[in-house]
Amino acid sequence: MFSETRYSTSPKDIPHFTNERLREEFLIESLFIPDQLQMVYSHIDRMIVGGYLAVEKTGDISDGSAVGTPGFFDAREMGIVNLGGTGTVVVDENTYIVEHRDVVYVGRETKSVRMSSKDPSNPAAFYMNSVPAGYPVPSALIRQADSKPVTMGDEEHANKRTLRMYIHPEVSPSCLLLMGITEPAPGSIWNTEPPHVHERRMEAYVYFNMAPEDRVMHFMGEPSQIRNIVVADRQAVLSPAWSIHMGAGTGPYCFVWGMTGENKAYNDVQPVAVKDLL
Ligand SMILES: O=C(O)C(=O)C[C@H](O)C(=O)CO
Ligand SMILES: [Zn+2]
């Protein structure tokens, strides 16, 4: 089921990494291959990052042998974000019509998830984050209109953006998964400023709605050892608890952020002033 398994990395290793090694550890390049479920198992808080580009076939997630339980969701929850055209997600007996930027929450003890597209010429692109969950929460469709928007930053710093919370205690509950989508305002290029670390949670990003020729310069690492990863459309990045994360795009972009760890306290973060980055 997993195209790759990634193990955890110590921040002490980062100064010794080549660019290739940095990309190998933290960048996930190919999540959207027509009709092939792509799943990367990360040992960073055991988050699974997945993608399914539904063209002709229906993608199915039910078998748990790869995670060591009879069913995939016997001890896991998942968030599914549609980055593409209209699709359908069937979670056991519930059928959800999922538009671009809608999110489906799948709770622990779900038996099966089936994903398909309405129109193969404009396929749905389902992006997934799945993490261990201690108790079941009912599955739900969270439409963009139901998400909670928060506007941050300003034009002077080119970091004005709208962050939308979807899987979040104030919007739609989960066990330990948090997910949302951030979009910079036209002309703003920076996300997540000031940067921060969150010692008690890891994070994964997928960048999307980018022109093929554009790139996001994603910055990561301990505040005193900043590195960058060049990221293209629909590529994902893993962000360990010890790493800052911020990025600047050469053109318009959006990104999905997903987090898990000890808590769901979105504000349990330690900001780092840009002037302190080295
Ligand atoms: O632009 C932002 O700021 C974000 O989107 C922040 C992420 O949600 C994040 O890093 C949450 O910890
Ligand atoms: Zn963060």
Taking all residues together, what is the mean pLDDT? 98
- Gyration radius (Cα, Å) is 18 Å
Q: Can you tell me the CATH superfamily?
A: Jelly Rolls
Element-level helix/strand string? EHEEEEEEEEEEEEEEEEEEEEEEE
DSSP strand content = 35-45%
Question: Features of this protein?
Answer:
single chain, 278 residues, mainly beta, Jelly Rolls, seven-stranded mixed beta sheet, 1 helix, 3% helix, binds the ligand O=C(O)C(=O)C[C@H](O)C(=O)CO, binds zinc ion, 4-deoxy-L-threo-5-hexosulose-uronate ketol-isomerase activity, RmlC-like_jellyroll, metal ion binding, RmlC_Cupin_sf
Provide a descriptive summary of the structure in words.
It is built from 1 helix and 24 strands. It is an all-beta fold and 278 residues long. It has a single domain (4-276), classed as Sandwich (Jelly Rolls). The strands form 5 sheets. The chain has a 7-stranded mixed sheet, with no helix packed on it. It has a 7-stranded antiparallel sheet with strand order 2-21-18-23-15-14-13. The N and C termini lie far apart (39 Å). The model has no long low-confidence stretch (mean pLDDT 98). The site of zinc ion (ZN) has 4 residues, from loops. Its EC number is 5.3.1.17. Keywords: Isomerase, Metal-binding, Zinc. GO terms for molecular function: 4-deoxy-L-threo-5-hexosulose-uronate ketol-isomerase activity; metal ion binding. One of its GO terms (biological process) is D-glucuronate catabolic process.
